[in-house]
Amino acid sequence: MASTIQRSIVTTESPAVRYLLTGLALLFISVFLVIPLASVFVEAFRQGWRLYLAALVEPDAVQAIKLTLIVAAISLPANLIFGVAAAWAIAKFDFKGKSFLTTLIDLPFSVSPVVAGLIYVLMFGAQGWWGPWLIEHNYTIIFAVPGIVLATIFVTFPFVARELIPLMEAQGSDEEQAAIVLGASSWQMFWRVTLPKIKWALLYGVILANARAMGEFGAVSVVSGHIRGMTNTVPLHVEILYNEYNFVGAFACASILALLALLTLAAKSYVEWRGEQQAAADRRHAVEE
Amino acid sequence: MRFKQPSVLPGFNLSLGYTLFYLSIIVLLPLSALLIKTSALSWEHFWQIISEPRVVASYKLTFGASLLAALINLFTGLLVAWVLVRYQFYGKRFIDAMVDLPFALPTAVAGIALATIYAPNGWIGQYLEPLGIKIAFTPIGIVIALTFVTLPFVVRTVQPVLQDLEHELEEAACSLGAGRWQIFYKVIFPTILPALLTGFALAFARAIGEYGSVIFIAGNMPFVSEITPLMIISKLEQYDYLGATAIAVVMLVVSFALLLLINGLQWWTAKRLGRVK
To answer: If you ran DSSP here, which 8-state letter would residue B129 be given?
Structure first.
């Protein structure tokens, strides 16, 4: 969040320059951000409420929404547990190879989504490493839900860890060590000392990961097979409808995702604010000690 | 030095063990599948696949458009960060939150929205059409889509640095007789340069891998408006797994190089600002 610094008259630009720069910035943001966002809703309602709602209750759309929710419900907890475990190991202990491990955790961020999908096809696809074995035993991963879940786990992998690691490093281990010395068991220490300190960062990471999980397109596109009603998430469904020139349908589904994006931004702002409040309170406590 | 410094805290083995296990099966093993599959190719065959004219055209387009988008965001990102940190205006909080929209909005939604807006009969496209400017289904459209997607990177890396800038430095420079432009060029700019470069590199890295927001506006014609991720998918659809993996390896190598570069830039930023990591 931006806060303004009080500027003395000598260290700021003349009003004319200020207005010009502000105007340019606002113009840029309007053209590149506000207009596309607005267009999603306008195009969705272009032919009225009835067709909008009809597009959303259509069976394939409902299935897509269900699949998106299921995928998020599986991938988020998995990456949450990983994030906490990785942050604990990296932030609270000193060991060789720690920064290399941190770089490895960031790897999924730098990989293109299409490559992320491709690697799972290479492992589990018909011609992949385990392809023949899977076919023999009648399991399907690629072109089915498990593949979509795996690809989504990959692309949302670092979110929680990246939020927790800097925070836990900055918070230090004093309170945890005090708890251990006072006789707390490991789980007590974790639940009652660590978790309350990191809960806002945790929530922040989950919000970001959720936005990515529900909106992922490239990676899921590669592993899903695009089978309507079965292996389409909402973003893929949007693509199918758009390619069929069903613009109202496409934008109707897109508007749900856009709404989700706005909720994400709002939740993000709120959690950021609470996190800052907590950090300020921690600093006050530290000074008082 | 031993592997791990002694500590009173519990859970090291469990947490590190689980971390490595999960990391391996989700990230390392699948990525190694990519490299192992490609190693089955001879060097000549590999080179032949990744230097096909159509593939090379896609590299030029992908890297060129990404570079352009990152450059645009370099300037506009600095502008937006400057305005957000230093000026007061109505609706500032809203704009500040909106900057993160490309992070929160699914790429497919951005893709269809931009394609519709810049189409010849679209919201913006209809005004540009009579001027002879075509955006949708041309490389320009790709640059616009990539600019949208990478918009937050420079803003968010520069904002904290601008915010923490020491007021006293500027006042000192001013009292020593520097004009506004001199203050910016000699005092402010060197301090924010590492952050600017980091944001630029992040934007570039994200742009080269982008798929969802580009394919709707791109036109996807071979040699003209086909991006590299799309090439990978085309090869997959033709069951040319070797071709797809070869190109993917090229992208992976570039991504990894950029990741190392970005880490280096972030280390430089921390050093420049005097923060200990």
So the answer is: G
Is position A287 within any domain? no
Size of interface A-B (CB pairs under 8 A): 300
| Whether the Cβ atoms of residue B46 and residue A131 lie closer than 8 Å to each other | no
The one-letter amino acid at B112 = I
* Amino acid of residue A232: N
Nearest to A8 among B171, B239, B251 (CB): B171
Domain span at residue B129? 42-272
CATH of the domain at B130: 1.10.3720.10
Question: By mean pLDDT, which of A247-256, B43-52, B205-214 is the weakest?
Answer: B43-52
Q: Say if A101 falls within a structural domain.
A: yes
Tell me whether residue A40 is in a domain: no
Give a yes or no: residue B27 inside a domain: no
pTM reported for the whole predicted model: 0.89
Which 3 state secondary structure label does DSSP give A69?
A: helix
Alpha-carbon distance of B32 to A260, in angstroms, equals: 35
What range defines the domain where residue A204 resides?
A: 49-282
Nearest-Cα distance to chain B for A65, in Å, is 14
The tokens of B251 are what? 């992208």
Are A4 and B85 in contact (CB < 8 Å)? yes
Q: How many whole angstroms separate alpha carbon B101 and alpha carbon A50?
A: 28
If you measure CA to CA, which chain B residue comes closest to A246?
B112
Residues B208/B63, Cβ–Cβ less than 8 Å:
yes
Segment B7-44, tens digit of pLDDT = 888 889 999 999 999 999 999 999 988 888 888 888 88
Distance from C-alpha of B163 to C-alpha of A45, rounded to nearest angstrom: 41
Closest CA to A140 of A124, A127, A151: A124
Distance (Å) of CA A32 to CA A37, A84, B52, B126, B151: 9, 36, 35, 17, 9
Tell whether A246 is covered by a domain: yes
> Quick one: B275 exposed, middle or buried, by C-beta within 10 A (0-12, 13-18, 19+)?
exposed
**Structural domains of chain A, count:** 1
- Check if the beta carbon of residue A61 is closer than 8 Å to that of residue A55: yes
Cα dist from B276 to A245, B262, B269, B273, whole Å:
55, 17, 11, 9
Q: Look at residue B171 and tell me if it is in a domain.
A: yes
Q: Is residue B153 part of a domain?
A: yes
User: For position A157, which CATH number holds?
Assistant: 1.10.3720.10
Total number of domains constituting chain B: 1
**SS3 sequence, A257-274?**
HHHHHHHHHHHHHHHHHH
**Inside any domain, residue B11:** no
pLDDT tens digits, A86-107: 999 999 998 888 888 998 998 8
The mean pLDDT value of chain A amounts to 89
Contacts of B112 in chain A (CB under 8 A): 40, 238-239, 242, 250-251, 254
Which residues have a Cβ under 8 Å from the Cβ of B66 and sit 6 or more positions away?
Answer: B146, B204, B207, B208, B210
Decide if A101 contacts A118 (C-beta within 8 A).
Answer: no
Candidates B85, B88, B112, partner chain A, best to mutate (most A CBs within 10 A): B112
